[in-house]
Design goal:
13% strand; single chain; alpha/beta; binds magnesium ion; 303 residues; elongated; binds adenosine-5'-triphosphate
Amino acid sequence: MSAERPQSISATRALLAAHDYLADSQLATSVYLALCLGRPLFLEGEPGTGKTELARVLSQALGAELMRLQCYEGLDVSSAAYEWNHARQLLAIRAAEATGQSAATIADELYSERYLIARPLLRALRPHTVPPVLLIDELDRSDEPFEAYLLELLADFQLTIPELGTIRATTPPIVIITSNRTREVHDAVKRRCIYHWVGYPDAARELEIVRRRAPQAERALAEQIVGFVQSLRQMELYKLPGVSETVEWTRALIAMDTTVLDPATVDATLGLLLKYQDDILKVQGVEAARLLAEVARQQELTH
Ligand SMILES: Nc1ncnc2c1ncn2[C@@H]1O[C@H](COP(=O)(O)OP(=O)(O)OP(=O)(O)O)[C@@H](O)[C@H]1O
Ligand SMILES: [Mg+2]
């Protein structure tokens, strides 16, 4: 079912929140403008901060289909945009020959839509009653020729198929591109988009996210969890925990029937927050106990 597009920044924020996605006002502004101006949204940021999730939630909230293109090294046009169905073309040639026609007489027919296999980029340009959301995920993993290939699509919502011509979207998709910045994406791509850096949320928003995504957690436990993760992010670690780690950790603690965080529980479950042994060794034991005590002190001050 299709839904109305939000008519203001606050309505955008409320729409996302109604689907359990909590955006700060800057992100809500970027999303609203991307929708209003029909420009692609480029989300760059730390891992696990809700970049991919935004596309998923937005498609759900708008009642739009989500077309997802996961980027990787070596991604090419045939996996991303379209491919000719060679097997079917061959069959058509055989069938033509069997009836005495030469392959040349059906050459034009062989390169028509019938023999085209549409991949996410082309599918997103096809007519839809509700414009789809096209997610180009982790563009930094693809290589530069692919970025260059995207320029035509991002600027004009069109693709050129040499044998067939230019295919232009009648209902332009909502395009969301994400990057973890493992390398810089080319300026030419960014210039065609609204750029937004997705950082870690502040404690209040992270608490709200945890409350929505792991509703079984009591408020006091959720506060303790968020306080702990927020203080971990102040440390010099190789890889800081993202929001997805906070949510996963909360779910794990609930599964363990935890009601209050204590040093032993933290030590036993650190692997849900930190993914490098060096980081775990740095935090486990004395440091974890110290952080917990600090969180408890802060909680006392605010209550
Ligand atoms: N603003 C938010 N509101 C609600 N949930 C959030 C938010 N940010 C993150 N999350 C939670 O974190 C999870 C992971 O987010 P997501 O996979 O979108 O991160 P990402 O930025 O795409 O990470 P990566 O760069 O590793 O792909 C979501 O499924 C959701 O539970
Ligand atoms: Mg992602």
